[in-house]
Structures are given as structure tokens and as C-alpha cells.
Automatic annotation (TrEMBL):
Keywords from the named record: Transferase
Protein's organism: Nakamurella multipartita (strain ATCC 700099 / DSM 44233 / CIP 104796 / JCM 9543 / NBRC 105858 / Y-104)
PANTHER family from the UniProt entry: GLYCOSYLTRANSFERASE (PTHR43685), GLYCOSYLTRANSFERASE TAGX-RELATED (PTHR43685:SF11)
Keyword Cell inner membrane: no
Protein name: Glycosyl transferase family 2
Residue ranges of every copy of the Glycosyltransferase 2-like domain listed in the record: 13-180
Phylogenetic classification of the source organism: Bacteria, Bacillati, Actinomycetota, Actinomycetes, Nakamurellales
SUPFAM superfamilies: Nucleotide-diphospho-sugar transferases
Length: 362
């Protein structure tokens, strides 16, 4: 059993793991590097090989200063039960969750605790960055990075109902909210963090620390087995519908609002039909435009061919004109030469006539 911690501990960090020692070592180093000092880390090993977990914790022991405790589960009750076990094994004012493949900036706890101590928010989340990576032997290779939900700078119930844009590792909340909203739903194999956040937002505000990312969500789309992220499978899509369905049934049981829901669903279906009709109209218009553009391209091609033919004809005419001009010049030169010859003959005849006339006169 883990040791019981002082009630004055400010933050309890629950870190669940299972057979990922390479990634666990990185997460532990991230937790040990926090500039904030008043925290404990409860490592919940959910039926994984205990040796590598103990070795990974021992590697940061000199920096951990006794803050790291390990719980080895001999029987797994699921990922969300592991979180609840970590909560039961700790006591604190605030709670954070760091999965064994994720990391924090060194000021993560300092900034989130400062926010909670200055405000009345039930929880606070930070800007997060998604890091895409792959495991190559004993090396983790980064392949890309992007901000998570870069167009959002607050955490609201309105947006979270549609989709969860808040990474689990970016959230720190007050422990006493657990008395109101309950703990993580162990019946959910995935999306328990979304369900937990929905219940949290139902009862109060969740702050947001914008700016440089303080939480890092590491994803490995190509990985399989223990190294795989749960979000990479299709379970999230299936359980998204089931969670919504469960909440709907609960509301109906309390308020009998089926008529209102049927009315709303009819409006939604009507809007969908209108949108579909408009889409079909737009698609038809686009098809007509495409046909006209194709016809214009054919006409353009024909015109281009005609212009090319005209250019060829023009070149041929120019060649013929040049040849005709050359022939004319040659003929003109011959005519000039003939006129010169005739001129000489005329001059000789005139000379002969002059001589004969002169002889007759004598």
C-alpha cells in the first residue's frame, strides 16, 4: 500500500502506466523537472511488469525527493479505474493527470496552481501542443508538431458538448469538486476524461492559460500494442455516441422531455433536408459551370488550332512574297540590262546615220 500523504500537499499528480518503460521514463523526468515543489506523484502500474516501473522511478529518485509513490495493480479494472486508484492513494488540494507518454513544461504546475489560488475557477487548463512521433528501437523520434485547437482560448461547456478540445494532461482541478461531480467513470473504456470534464463544467468555470504551450500530448499514429494511443482506434467514435445516448436517457428519466426532443430533431432533420437540397442545387450549378467551362476549353482549343493554322498560312504567304519579290528584282535587273543594250544599239545606229548623212551632203 502507498504511504498516506500530508493533507497540506498542494498537488497530487496521478500517472497511470502499463508496459511502456521508455515513455514512462520521459514522463517521470518531466514531472521531476517541475519548478513548483509542493506536489506528489502517484504512479499507478496497471498490471504491467513492475520491475521496469520501479527502475524508472529509481532513475529520478535523486530529483524526486520522495515525492514519487508507486501502486502496482495485480488485477486491472481498466484505465479509468487506475485514475481513481491514484486519487484514493493521495490527498491534496489540487489534482493533475499525467499519462505515461505525455510531458509538461517545467512551469506547468507553478502556473496552474497560481491561477487556481488567484481565482474561483474549479479547474484550469493550459495551451497544449500535439507532438507526432514514432518509436525507433530505444529512441523516440519526433515527426511533427502542432498546437491543439489553436483557434480556441477558453474552455466552455457549449464547445465541450460538441467536442473535447481539452487534453487530459493540460487540466488541473480542485480535489473538492470530486465530492460534487464524482470520480472517473470506470464503466467507460475511453472518453472518461470527456465525461469528467462535462460534469465539471456543469458545476462551474474552468479557466484557461493561453500563450506558449505548457502541456504536450504525444501521439504515435503508426504504433501498435502497448505503445499505441487509445485515440488512434475507432472506440472513441463508438463511445462518443454511447455517452451522448446515456446522458439523453438520464435527462428523459428526470424531465420526460421526449416531445421537445422530437420537435428539435424534426427541426434538425428539416434543416438537414434543406441543406441537402441546397447542396444538390449547388452541385447542379457547379456541374453546369463545369460543362460550360469544358465547352469553352474545347472552343479555346479549336481557336488555338485555327490561330496556329493562320500562323502557318501567314508564314507560307510571307515565304511566297519573299520569293516573288526576289524574282521581280531579278526580272527587273534583266530588263534594265536589256534597256542598256538597246541604248547602246540606238547610239550606234544614230552614229551610222550621222555619218551617211554627212557623206551625202558632200
Amino acid at each position: 500500500m502507498p504511504a498516506q500523504h500530508d493533507q497540506q500537499t498542494q498537488v497530487a499528480v496521478v500517472l497511470r502506466t502499463r508496459n511502456r518503460p521508455l515513455l514512462l521514463a520521459r514522463a517521470l523526468a518531466s514531472a521531476a523537472a517541475q519548478t513548483y515543489a509542493d506536489y506528489v506523484v502517484i504512479v499507478v502500474n496497471d498490471t504491467g511488469d513492475p520491475g521496469p516501473v520501479d527502475d524508472a522511478v529509481a532513475q529520478v529518485a535523486d530529483r524526486a525527493l520522495g515525492r514519487f509513490q508507486v501502486v502496482h495493480n495485480t488485477v486491472s479494472r481498466g484505465r479509468e479505474a487506475a485514475l481513481n486508484i491514484g486519487l484514493e492513494a493521495s490527498s491534496s488540494c489540487y489534482v493533475a493527470v499525467l499519462d505515461d507518454d505525455d510531458t509538461w513544461a517545467s512551469s506547468f504546475l507553478a502556473q496552474t496552481v497560481d491561477h487556481l489560488e488567484r481565482t474561483g475557477d474549479l479547474a484550469v487548463a493550459t495551451r497544449s501542443e500535439v507532438i507526432y512521433e514514432r518509436i525507433d528501437g530505444e529512441t523516440v523520434v519526433t515527426e511533427g508538431r502542432e498546437l491543439l485547437a489553436s483557434d480556441r482560448n477558453q474552455v466552455t461547456l457549449l464547445e465541450t458538448i460538441v467536442r473535447n478540445y481539452t487534453h487530459t494532461g493540460s487540466l488541473v482541478y480542485r480535489r473538492d469538486v470530486l465530492d460534487t461531480i464524482g470520480r472517473y467513470d470506470e464503466a467507460l473504456p475511453v472518453l472518461a476524461d470527456w465525461d469528467f470534464l462535462l460534469r465539471l463544467l456543469r458545476h462551474g468555470e474552468v479557466g484557461f492559460i493561453d500563450g506558449n504551450p505548457l502541456a504536450f500530448w504525444h501521439r504515435r499514429p503508426a504504433s501498435v500494442g502497448d505503445a499505441r494511443n487509445s485515440v488512434e482506434g475507432d472506440e472513441h467514435t463508438r463511445w462518443d455516441v454511447l455517452v451522448r445516448d446515456r446522458y439523453l436517457r438520464a435527462d428523459l428519466a428526470r424531465h420526460e422531455g421526449l416531445g421537445y426532443l422530437l420537435f428539435v430533431s424534426e427541426l434538425q432533420d428539416r434543416d438537414a433536408r434543406i441543406a441537402q437540397a441546397r447542396g444538390a442545387h449547388i452541385a447542379g450549378a457547379v456541374h453546369k459551370i463545369d460543362t460550360e467551362l469544358l465547352s469553352m476549353r474545347d472552343t479555346q482549343t479549336s481557336l488555338a488550332a485555327a490561330v496556329h493554322h493562320l500562323h502557318g498560312t501567314q508564314d507560307e504567304l510571307l515565304r511566297q512574297l519573299v520569293e516573288m519579290n526576289r524574282n521581280l528584282i531579278s526580272q527587273n535587273n534583266r530588263i534594265v540590262a536589256q534597256f542598256a543594250l538597246l541604248g547602246e544599239r540606238v547610239e550606234r545606229l544614230e552614229s551610222l546615220l550621222d555619218r551617211r548623212l554627212a557623206g551625202q551632203l558632200r
